[in-house]
Structures are given as C-alpha cells and as structure tokens.
Amino acid sequence: MNRSRLDLHGAPYFFVTPFFLLFAVFGFFPLVYTAWVSLRSWDLTGDAGFVGTANYQRLLADPDFWNAMLNTLGMFLLSTVPQLCFALVIAGLLNRPIRALMLFRLGVLAPIVTSVAAVAIVFGQLYGRDAGLVNGVLGLVGIGPIDWQAGKGSSWIAVASMVNWRWTGYNALIYLAAIQAIPRDLYEAAQLDGAGAVRQFRSITVPLIRPALIFTVVMSTIGGMQLFTEPLLFGQGDISGGSLRQFQTVAMYMFEQSFQNFDYGYGSAIAWMIFLLTVLAGVANALIARRLKGGI
Amino acid sequence: MRTTTRKALAATAVAASLVLTGCGGGETGESADGTITLTVKTFGQFGYDDLVAQYEASHPSVKVKQENIAKLADYTPKLQQWLTAGSGAGDVVALEEGILIKLMAKPDQFVNLLDHGAAALKGNFLDWKWQQALTPDGNKLIGLGTDIGAQGMCYRSDLFAKAGLPTDRAKVGALWPTWDGYLATGKQFAAANTGASFFDTAGTVYQNILMQQGDQTYFDRENTLIAATNPGVRKAWDQTVAMIGAGLSGKLQMWSPAWNAGFKQGSFATIPCPAWMLGQIKDQAGPENAGKWDVARVPGQGAVRGGSFLAVPAQSKHPKEAAELAKFLTSPQGQTAAFKAKNNFPSSPQAIDDPAVTGAVNEYFSDAPVGKIFGQSAKSLKPVYLGPDNQVVGDGIGDALTAIEQGKLGPDQAWTKAMNDAERAAGK
C-alpha cells in the first residue's frame, strides 16, 4: 500500500520538477541575484561593496528614469488602445462569411511572422526625415517635412505604429477564436428581436469575449513594459533614444545604464523597478478584471 | 512502479547536474613537455595571424592561441565577466580606448608592464598613447598601444569644384589651418548653393576640436568634473555652435541609412575621417564615385579617434611570457605588420615612418597619400587626459548638439542641459 501512495503523492511532483528546476536556474536565480546586485555599487572595474538602497534612492530622483517611464507609458497607450480596437473590428469582420476567408485569417498573422528587426528597419526608413515615404505622402497634402525623431509626440507615434502593425493581427485571431465559441442561438434570438449587426456586436460579442479582452490587455501591458527593439532601431541603435531622450523606454534606460555606462548596480535597480511596476500593473489588471467578471 | 519513480528521479537529477555544471572546464596552460600556451583575446580585426606564427617559430616553448570576438559591443561585457570572475581573460587582452580609460580606475586587475621592462619602450609609442595607459602617478603601465584612429578630412572634390573652391588636396588643406578657417570655407561653400551641406553632423566636428584644446577635457587628473569651467570645452562648443548656426551641418545621424546614402548622393562635402572610415566611404559611395572623394589634413593640430591597447590580466598564469608577447605584438615591426594586414594605423612613431606606412596611397581617394596624412595628424596630437566617465559626459554633450541641430533647444539651453547631465553622470 505504501508503494502506491508514493506513486500517487510523489510521482506528480517528480514529473513537474524539470520545469521548476529550469525556472530556478533561469528565472528565479537571476531575479534574486539582480536584487542582490542592485544593493551594491558595481561597475566595470568590479564590485565596490554594499550600498544599501542608495541605487533606489538615486533612481527615484532620476529625471531620466521618469522621462523613460513617461515615454513607455505614452507609447503603450498609443499602441495598445488603437491596436485592441482595430483587432476587435477585424475579428468581427473575419467572423462573417466572406470570400477567401482562410487567406484573410492567415493574412492578419503575417506581420507577427516578420522579424521585429526587419519591421523596425523598414519603418525607420518610412519615417526618414529627408527621403521617407511618410513625409513624402504628407508633403502631397502640404504638411511637413517632419523630423520624426526630434519630437516626443512624433517619435511615439512612429514607434507605436510599428507595434500596432505587428500585433493587431495576433490579437484579432485571439478575439476571433473567442467569438466563435459564442453560441449561435444568441445571435439568432437577437436577430428575431430585431437587433442589427452593430447592436449584436456591442451587446453579445463584446461582453461574451471579456476573458479574451482581459488576456490581451494583460499581454499588451507586459509587452509594453518591455518595449525595446522597436524604439532602439527607430533611433538607428541610439540607446539614449533621441537627442533629448524623446523615445527612450525604461528597458532601454536599464540597458544604457548597465551595458553602456557599465553601472551594473544601478542597472539592476532599474530592472527591479520595472519588475515591480509590471507586477503592480498585473495586479491592477486582475482587480479590474475581477470586478468586470462580477458585473456580468 | 517503484522503478519508474526512481528513473524519473534519476533523470531529473541528471538534468539538474547538466544544467548546473554547464559552465565548467579549466585551462592550466601548461603541457607535459614544458611548452606553455598563451591565450590572446581580441575583438574586431587585429591582423596578428602572421605575427603569431613568427613568434611561435622564434619561441619554441610558447604556443599562442588566438581568441577573437567580432564585435566590440559583445567583447566588452565578456571581458568584464572574465575580470570579475578572476578567470577566463587569458594572458593577453585587447582593450579599446574607452574601456581602458574606465579600467584605469582599478589598475590592480592588470600586470604592471613597467615590471617587465616596458619602460625602455616608451620611445616606441606616441607620447599621448603611452600616457593613456599610465596611471596618473606614473608608477603603473597597464597597456601597450596597438593602433589609433588617426584622422584626416575627407572631402568631395566635385562638390568643391562646383562651389568654386580649390580641389587639390594641398590647397584644400591650406584653406583650414585652423577650425576658424574651416568655418570660413564652410560659409563660402554654403553661399554657393550646391544643394549639399558642408559636413555630416556636428558631433564629430566638436569631438575633433575638443581633442586639440589642451591636456584635459571634462575631468582633471583627480577626476573632478571641470567641463563647465574648462575654457577648452567651451571653445570647442562655441565653435561647433557657430558652424550649426551658419547652416553647415547636414544633421545626419552617424550610421543612419540617410548618412550612409549621403556618401553616394554627395549630400555633404566634408567629413572628418579616421583611417578605418576610408573603407566604409568606399563601400557606401560605390565605384561610380571613384576619384570624387579625396583626403586632406584635418584643421588644427592633429586628431585621433579611438584605438586600442594590449594588456596582461593579473590573473594570467604566465605574466612574464605574456608581457613578452604583448611587447612583441606592439613593437614597431608588429604594428607595421598589423597595418599591412588589416590597415590598423600604428601608434608607434617608428612604424608611422616605416616606408610601408608612409608610402601607402588610397586608389579610391584619388591616390591620396593616406599614410603620410594620417601619420602627420597622429604625430602632432598632444596627450589629453580623459578620465573614467569621459564617455558618458561626452555622449550627453553630443546629444545636446543634436538637439540644437533639430531646433529643439537654443544653444544656451543646450549648454545648461549638457552641463547638468554631466554633473549627474559624474556625481552618481
């Protein structure tokens, strides 16, 4: 009897250990080690000892960090809000009987297959100051030429457009899957009651795919906090994100401090701050989600 | 059933031990027959293959292993890991100038080459190159110079002709004995309305002017920030701002696609060019522009951008032999050979005067005698003390100049911002 008890109670733990071991080595250890480094003064020449919370105090008073935070938030809003709205509309359209449905459904996924570096380089060219396509088109209607990298707003729009282009289709497919799980008879009943397509979408589709909506918002939040490659390549690899840090994200600022200024202690403090803020955003999301769910 | 469980456990344990011991393996560097192996770590292209073969032939008891990481950006963090971990750095490491300046703050990580007879070699290096790797008290030398980014002023002779300026490189050089002369020429060029700007971006011009302003820039030898009070910094800044104000800058960010395309399209007429940039210009401008580019002297007294050193980490098991190898590779003959192999411009006056270097001409640049032009520029430069936080302060000032170019800040605002940023970067 002992044997089978061990099997029942012990075996499952053994089967899941590989994940936890890998997580311990590649997830948990770096997390803890970064926290330890963030309490020390550590630069290229080596570890100069424990400094307590000095790195964090410096961080809270660092205007460049808060500037990066503002940029991250700005680009996050400019990318997430339009992105999810468009994705919802596209999902609604893809759910209708149209010609070559499969082609369109696969088509919206194409941007996600494209390498992010390639996207950023092509968009960087489109937003070129002297010979960029965007300025060319704007020039036809008498606007411009805009130096996209020079302004905060213009650079945010440019970076957000890359993110939107890449992720809209992905979110649309998630919504589509959720929409197809909605029972058809709800729509039929609504139709009998005289509800039009827009009314059906608003009153049936959107409320019933709420879990999918919450999931995409959480994923976008995490992605938004880690925004790095697009703004970096938009600035031609300039880690400070423009002459006045117009489009430097927090991830870029962490990289700049750690691997350009070799201030590892401070860089680690920034990394932990990003982690804490991401957790905070996640908790906020969860709370809002719970209230929304309760409201159904 | 029991065996299954045990197997699962064993498998997990094996997986764990694989993961945990993934990074192991040591090097002793000494084999049974008494020959030792010296590991040389470099980045980019140092051109040491022939030299290493030569050294092994004349030192039968020494084997040299070369390890190279292509990109400096990948090499630097690795180097930091090796130094922190106390192993892995090998016996001879290449240090790029920016890193060397930082590491000078903690010279204990390297063998003092003065203990290995390096003092006698002082005359083999340009004075400023020697000083860069010497601690301020003069007691410790952590590196021996390899190459330097000696600079000339590259220019488009076709655009100069269009603007009614001389095109012959001696006459062009005579236009700008000083940076004021360069500014005056630029104004003349701009007045001719060729459609091109006079130079690509203000940052590099500023850097060149700055390095000619006395023996210190942002920091004094006690590493106190003096950027705001050093008249040299202000002079370089003012002169650069005057050039931006005169509309001479093309406002092109270095390495951007527009900057690259500018070489082919002729969107700027001059660019301060280190020796290694000639290849870049040739590639970007393409064969159709052969003979349109030329090289003249740089305004003022010499100019250099970047360069490297060889050092022996304190963790080396064979410091004496490693120092000998470093001395050999950085000798005038070694530097001449590296120049022949990969065009790395030497930091040794003897090598600079070697016929192989002085006779070097560049076909693409209208057969310009680049060896002579760059050599002159390198030899007339005076030593400048930079300080470990030089780069971050310099980056801030470069960004402020870009903000002026973009019309985002006025010159006074930009100066205040640059000085505040410098204060924060240095005072952390």
Automatic annotation (TrEMBL), chain A:
It is found in: Cell membrane. SUPFAM superfamilies: MetI-like. The chain crosses the membrane at residues 12-36, 73-94, 106-127, 208-228, 264-288. Keywords: Cell membrane, Membrane, Transmembrane, Transmembrane helix, Transport. GO terms for biological process: transmembrane transport. Residues 69-285 form the ABC transmembrane type-1 domain. GO terms for cellular component: plasma membrane. It is a multi-pass membrane protein. Pfam families: BPD_transp_1. Belongs to the binding-protein-dependent transport system permease family. This is Cellobiose transport system permease protein. It comes from Kribbella italica. The lineage of its organism: Bacteria, Bacillati, Actinomycetota, Actinomycetes, Propionibacteriales.
From TrEMBL, chain B:
Residues 1-22 form the signal peptide. Keywords: Signal. It comes from the Bacteria. The keyword S-adenosyl-L-methionine does not apply. This is Cellobiose transport system substrate-binding protein. It comes from Kribbella italica.
